[in-house]
């Protein structure tokens, strides 16, 4: 395969700069098949995808002024899932490949260093990997429709471009906002990641959201915010009651009608000030819905893109050596990167497969990692009439999950709980 290199897209620039020895920003997408996974066939499927997805099969390289990505010549070999999800990818690993493919019993998982792609790009890749696996194992041809690509085609230009460079407004939007409440707890030994999955009927979840006149994302954000508020009330009175804010990554492909397999999402923070008074769930639902709707209109998103892209285009910054850039980005990230939200809620939406592929697939999962300075996150994906809510934490305390899922049950949504903690 021809060696190619790619500049990091605008969203990807921060991730190499802020990673630490025992932490970096990675996420997982996984598919559970109906039968046990054959690793030999899985490796053949990975090799078949190598030339079609050049921006996925890349390694992280260090230049004089910027990090960049370079295609790998050999496909990564699938490994048996050996620990808990989202163990950090050390720099030595990233210099070889920024994606790892894992299998365990019926499950196939792909974990990505976030500079490669976002959740949407990762899920598209996983669906194609699963489709090729089904073809090789069962002889069933999966048509190239929806998210499934034609592997005989060359990679499309739209899939490899940095769409942030196309969508900035002429004016930028200020990043200034109030700091948010910080969840705290006792770190797990060996950086173990607890994952509690709540499985709920998608139809019931939709009905409850529509009863409130809001989207599923706004509804879940409201319930999550109420759980965070209850958690804050348990703190000593001397601690200042800060804003309750949920960080929502927004898929900009829908906003601007563009397609790319690279990062194309921006996060917005929505919430309320608990010092203003008591809130009902209905009130918080309306707040979350209207704030999210206002923040995600194309004009507002274009202004937020301009805020980031304009900095990248400053000549002095472009000519600044990479070590100095890294230090500056770390400082900016420390001040504003993780201080404006309590935790992330990333909703992938519903995964739809070609009819020929559906009989072989049982479920999908989407798990984002914890941030460096706060210990909880939440990610959501729906498939086959069920919604899988994955709550991850790097601390021992499970109070937030208990409050969140208990509130869903109180609202009439049945929840089946799974956990990786035995």
CATH class of the largest domain: Alpha Beta
Terminal Cα span? 44 Å
> What's the name of the CATH homologous superfamily of the largest domain?
Nonribosomal peptide synthetase, condensation domain
Strand order of the largest sheet: 10-9-11-13-14-8-15
Shape: globular
- Arithmetic mean pLDDT: 94
Number of strands: 15
Write the layout of secondary structure elements.
Blueprint: E1 5-7, H1 14-18, E2 26-33, H2 39-49, E3 58-62, E4 67-71, E5 79-80, H3 91-94, E6 99-104, E7 107-113, H4 119-138, H5 157-160, E8 194-201, H6 202-211, H7 216-233, E9 244-251, H8 252-256, E10 265-272, H9 281-295, H10 298-312, H11 315-318, H12 322-337, E11 343-350, E12 361-368, E13 376-383, E14 386-393, H13 399-410, E15 416-419
Helix pairs in contact: 2-4, 6-7, 7-9, 7-13
List keywords for this structure.
422 residues; alpha+beta; Chloramphenicol Acetyltransferase; 7-stranded mixed beta sheet; 5-stranded mixed beta sheet; 13 helices
């Amino acid at each position: 395969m021809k060696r190619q290199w790619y500049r990091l897209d605008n969203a990807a620039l921060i991730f190499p700069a802020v990673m630490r020895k025992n932490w970096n920003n990675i996420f997982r997408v996984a598919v559970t098949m109906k039968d046990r996974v054959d690793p030999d066939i899985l490796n053949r499927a990975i090799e078949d995808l190598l030339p079609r997805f050049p921006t996925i099969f890349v390694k992280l390289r260090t230049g004089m002024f910027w990090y960049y990505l370079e295609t790998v010549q050999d496909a990564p070999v699938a490994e048996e899932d050996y620990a808990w999800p989202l163990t950090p990818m050390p720099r030595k690993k990233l210099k070889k490949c920024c994606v790892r493919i894992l299998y365990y019993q019926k499950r196939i998982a792909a974990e990505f260093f976030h500079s490669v792609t976002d959740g949407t790009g990762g899920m598209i890749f996983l669906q194609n990997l699963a489709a090729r696996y089904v073809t090789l194992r069962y002889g069933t041809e999966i048509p190239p429709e929806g998210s499934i690509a034609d592997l005989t085609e060359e990679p499309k230009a739209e899939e490899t471009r940095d769409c942030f460079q196309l969508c900035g407004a002429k004016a930028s939007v200020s990043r200034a906002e109030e700091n948010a409440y910080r969840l705290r707890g006792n770190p797990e030994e060996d950086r173990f990641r607890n994952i509690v999955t709540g499985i709920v009927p998608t139809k019931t979840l939709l009905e409850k959201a529509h009863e409130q006149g809001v989207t599923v994302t706004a509804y879940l954000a409201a319930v999550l915010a109420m759980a965070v508020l209850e958690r804050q009330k348990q703190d000593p009175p001397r601690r200042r009651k800060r804003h309750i804010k949920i960080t929502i990554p927004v898929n900009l492909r829908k906003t601007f009608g563009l397609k790319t397999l690279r990062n194309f999402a921006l996060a917005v923070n929505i919430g309320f000030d608990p010092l203003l008074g008591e809130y009902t769930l209905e009130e918080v639902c309306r707040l979350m819905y209207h704030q999210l709707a206002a923040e995600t209109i194309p004009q507002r998103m274009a202004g937020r893109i301009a805020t980031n892209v304009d900095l990248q285009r400053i000549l002095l910054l472009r000519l600044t050596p990479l070590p100095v850039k890294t230090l500056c980005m770390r400082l900016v990230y420390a001040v504003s990167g993780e201080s404006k939200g309590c935790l992330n809620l990333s909703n992938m939406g519903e995964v739809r497969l070609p009819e020929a592929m559906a009989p072989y697939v049982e479920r999908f999962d989407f798990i984002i990692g914890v941030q460096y300075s706060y210990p909880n996150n939440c990610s959501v994906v729906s498939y086959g009439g069920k919604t899988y809510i994955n709550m991850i934490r790097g601390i021992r305390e499970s109070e937030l999950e208990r409050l969140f899922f208990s509130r869903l049950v109180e609202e009439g949504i049945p929840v089946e709980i799974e956990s990786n903690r035995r």
